[in-house]
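Handout, tutorial session.
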Amino acid sequence: MPQAIHISPIDNVVVALHPIAKGTLVEVDGLAVTALEDIPQGHKMAVKPIKNGENVIKYGFPIGHATADAAPGTWMHTHNVHTNLSGEVEYSYNPAPDLAPLPKVEPETFMGFRRKDGRAAIRNEIWIIPTVGCVNDIAKKIVADNQDLVTGSIEGLYTFTHPFGCSQTGHDHAQTRKLLAALVRHPNAAAVLVLHLGCENLQHDQFVEELGEYDHDRVKFLTCQDVEDEFAAARDILKELAAYAGQFERQPIPVSELVVGMKCGGSDGLSGITANPTIGRFSDMMGQRGGSTVLTEVPEMFGAEGFLMDRCINKEVFVKAEHMINGFKDYFISHNEVVYDNPSPGNKAGGITTLEDKSCGCVQKGGTAPIMDVIGYGDPVVTKGLNMLYGPGNDLVSATAMTAAGAHLILFSTGRGTPFSAPAPTLK
């Protein structure tokens, strides 16, 4: 097994594939360098002289600059590498010379569910969506008390709780309403019970207006303060929803109807050269078969956004991407936060040094296909191929946003290890 990987021919560092002891001769891509100190797994070692202030190159891209002279064999990490990032950047559209949709492949099929509105699903579940955090425990008890309704083709009864829906105003309130309505529309939910308290800011009429047209057999509402026994009332409603959901059976559906979210968390120095490129290849395969993929975690694109923006299919999509990237940076700056303070202690322990280092690994999940669209938080995927979604790096928020965008499942790469899950099935 090789000791290290030289990702790009122009890189001046290699990544240790396993711990390298001081004094070990490392041979890779015609280079022979003796380690001057212990190099932990996933961490970087200089293979060329790097002067103080000179860029450290990994993935063929600057991931920061050296803060001291480094000889070949030096461990390159937070003690001697610093970010190049600052604030907003003025971008220009320079489409990649080979920018074009990937060759199409006849789509295979998968065994899924066909909803009455024509949409495809990979699960046949009943969801309980609370409109306010005050009813979270009620929703959990309703789920626990009604597991006997999970029979036949019904695959689960779940609730997705949250602390919002009251004591919110303006944009925050609107975002909560928009996201919860998007979850109610999700095709993996064969049937949905929307659970209100009654006195919350997010009132029933507001929610119905946000939801728009809906199938009254599929979506039911319960306001706890309007009934004497909310558990009995919920039971009666769930029986109706179970009868509706039980009609659906698995059938062959083209892969072209799938929407797959792509996420990473608990990343380390190997994520960007193992799991993330694998997800990127899958994304390309999905695009070739007419399917859709979703890439988010905008702050974890900072420093590597050039990889993506030059792949925008046209100027209109590029402008949307530019506004998304700089809008997020402006949000940080307006709250007196630096844009580059992202890598976590676990990221750093695993070999990620700067945000550029993390971002260059993160965007590998996007593969090589063109960016076909950029969509807002809570908005649905409407364009086939690779989509960028407005969302944070936070695992819980970004994965929920991908679910709200219509992701049937989420491919989640992790180097350090995380048990995180989302409303959509989450494959690690």
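The second record follows below. Compare its token runs with those of the first.
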Amino acid sequence: MNDHFDNVATAFSRKALVYDAFDDININLQRMRRKVYDHFTRFAPAGGHVLELNAGTGLDASVLVQRGYRVHATDIAPGMLAKIEQK
């Protein structure tokens, strides 16, 4: 990778431990996420494959798995990937 990508990966890795907490306290973000999930599931049949780029800690991937999708979640930040692996 180049320095820019390394800097981004480092910055997001540092935030990985507290990243989900922002979603936990933000009611508007939770409502928007639910709308996206509902919209997505109306048009994509459960059981399908989903590739999530820039997945962060896997918040969205976890919900889609619960709704019956097979998800491959990726991220540039090793700290974020570690959180995905824990879920």
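Points raised in discussion: DSSP finds five helices and two strands in the chain.
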